Amino acid sequence: MPANDRAFNYDLDYRNLNLREQPELYRVGKGEMGVLLIQPYKAEILPYWRFKTPEIARESSKKIYQLFLEYKEKGDFIGMDMARKFLQMGYTRARRYANHRTGQKYDGPVPDDQKGRSGAHGRDQLPHDEDPIKAESARIFYGKYLEAREDQEYKKLKKDWQEKYG
Q: Which region holds residue 123: left if phi is over 0, alpha if psi is between -120 and 50, else beta?
């Protein structure tokens, strides 16, 4: 199967889709792809997603991980994957704010060839002094993200899902 067949499909009308009712349309994609699109999971998880302080991050990541476990109990792979994505996004966004006080990585607009990409890819980014509070929030989310990502049942369900649906 070509690699692009496994890509997240951004062409679907996610505003009007309930992927719990049409799970065959879900694609894992890479990293956090689709995290803010997939319903009803976005509505179920997003209200708990916060990282302003380590205390808030600890409570948030614990709640999202609890949702991961609840989805696991129900055999709901999409829910598990979405919770994992929110945990990963907690880490990456807290890291961004740890590195850049405003959350902006660039001095000016994002270059056209870099739009939609995340992380540092050798681009000119704003200089920064690390914010230790956001860095700790990032570490908290990263720990819970790893717990979800390395969960053996999650790994098995992910492999099965990708073999079945691409």
A: beta
